[in-house]
Amino acid sequence: MPSLFQTAIAQANAGTDLGEDQTSQLIDAMLRGEAEEHDVANLLLALREKGESVSELVGAARAMRRHMTQIPHSHAVLLDTCGTGGSGSGTFNISTAVAIVAAAAGVAVAKHGNRKATSLSGSADVLEVLGVPIESESELVAERLDRHGICFCFAAKLHPAMRHVIGVRRQLGVKTLFNLLGPLCNPAGATHQLLGTSTPDAQRMVAAAIGSLGTTRSFVVHAADGQDEVSLEGATHVIDVRDAEAVRYDWTPTDFGLLPATRDALAAANPHESAAIIQRIFAGEPGPCRDAVLAGTAAALVLVGVSDTVADGVKRAAETIDSNAAKEKLASLAHL
How far apart are CA 275 and CA 282, in angstroms? Predict the structure, then answer.
């Protein structure tokens, strides 16, 4: 009799999507360390070749959530700005800076992230340079969230079961289903997500998955210039997911009241350069890097209902930075 994995591999090779429960069982087996490496590799490659489906993404996310270390909290509104990565844009860590400014503006934030994989600087990498302890135990992460209204959820620490598949993923060296799962598995259970995606297909899939998994409201964004962020180079395509209903619209630099900015103006070659840019922004330096953070924060503030429009959100974000509140919030995140 074919095994669970052999059946699923044959199904995927035939071009048939796996069911949600079926995928969940497969990922459970992987994360318990019960699956053979060659079965894991063959299944991930078969799904990649077929093209991953929403049912597979949702099933995998449900399984990963069962295995993650959860961060307890009492916040009715909790924001995450974790995206899928993979855009290859080479910018500084915009979403990490946005998370800090949003927290300084009074929004509770549980920033989920990891070390760099496809980018030049992951959120964990830049925060480590900025002096934030990223390897904290879950109790300390929860304490930071409770005391300071912001915490960093280090994926490598809070998803310990992923150790069973990391070797296979490294050997394969290509994007697989797991590359889309990070933003769907926040250990603190974020109620609101500003979630950047690297392709239109990823945006569509992730938005549909969030609709099934459930958040209070999420903005799933993909920029026309390819960035997995709110962009000021052109249009940012938004899928606004609320109560499992999805609405599409675009933002442009004019909506934010900001000047256009190219990706080249936002470049950072490594975590140290990225950290230096963030520190200069928080010290009040004007320019396109600050504007990118203002735009992202404005989107976050609209998302959680603090601002009515992104233009109003930009003003609130600018006031937060100029009052040194963002700089102070970063310092509080670095010290318990």
Answer: 11
Q: Which of 15-24, 55-64, 80-89, 164-173 has the lowest mean pLDDT?
A: 80-89
- What pTM does this model have? 0.94
Residue 83 marked as a ligand binder: yes
Residue indicated by tokens 């500084």? 92
What is the number of residues in the chain?
A: 336
Amino acid at residue number 241: V
Other CB atoms within a 10 A radius of the CB of residue 70 amount to 15
Q: How many CA atoms lie within 13 A of 14 on its CB side?
A: 9
- Annotation-wise, does 136 bind a ligand? no
Surface-to-core class of residue 259, CB atoms within 10 Å of its CB (0-12 exposed, 13-18 middle, 19+ buried) = exposed
- Any known ligand binding at 229? yes
Q: Is 119 annotated as a binding residue?
A: yes
Q: Is 24 annotated as a binding residue?
A: no
Q: How far is CA 258 from the centre of its chain?
A: 24
Could you give all domains of the chain from N- to C-terminal order, each with its CATH number?
Answer: 4-67 (1.20.970.10), 79-158+179-334 (3.40.1030.10)
Q: Is 262 annotated as a binding residue?
A: no
Q: Nearest-CA neighbor of 293 among 255, 269, 334, 321?
A: 321
87 is in an annotated binding site: yes
Residue 117, annotated ligand binder? yes
Six token digits for residue 300: 């976050």
Residue 136 CA: distances (Å) to CA of 71, 112, 182, 247: 12, 13, 19, 38
The reply, when asked if residue 95 is annotated as ligand binding, is yes
pLDDT in tens, 317-327: 999 999 999 99
Check the CA dihedral 90-267-237-221 and report its sign. positive
